[in-house]
Amino acid sequence: MRLLLPTALALVLLLAGCSRPGPTRIGAVMDVEWLTNWPTAGDGLKHIDLDYTDAYRDGFTIPSAAQVDGGHFTFRFKLRDPLGKGRTFRYKVYYQNTSYKFPEADAAGEQHPQAAENFYGSWEDAGEGFRPTPPITD
Length: 138
Description:
There is one protein chain. This protein is mainly beta. It contains 1 helix and 10 strands; from the N terminus they run E-E-E-E-E-H-E-E-E-E-E. The strands form 4 sheets. A 3-stranded antiparallel sheet has the order 2-8-9, with no helix packed on it. Strands 3-7-10 form a 3-stranded antiparallel sheet, with no helix packed on it. The radius of gyration is 18 Å and the shape is globular. The N and C termini lie far apart (44 Å).
């Protein structure tokens, strides 16, 4: 079985500047690259085959340690501090698989009660919050 991660994964990168009170501006995120340790197929997409090893007991982990060193996807991005003060920012990545998601709205146009289930956190420890960036100097 193949699981296709479309390029429009609906990944959300939330950033909040960590600086002294005063004027705040959100940093500019550029050149985001997802799944940098996973090959791109000839069609330009990144196809992920499920590793069925011990899935009956442990469920699926994507990617597995057998597929990628450490069993984690990597990504990178550039961030600009519009105030030029070398501030630290925080980020967290969420992903969404659109192939089996709940509708965003119900028949009345209100948020579907299970729409929040469409998003998955990126850290192995679900309780982990935002991670800090190093100070942005350029």
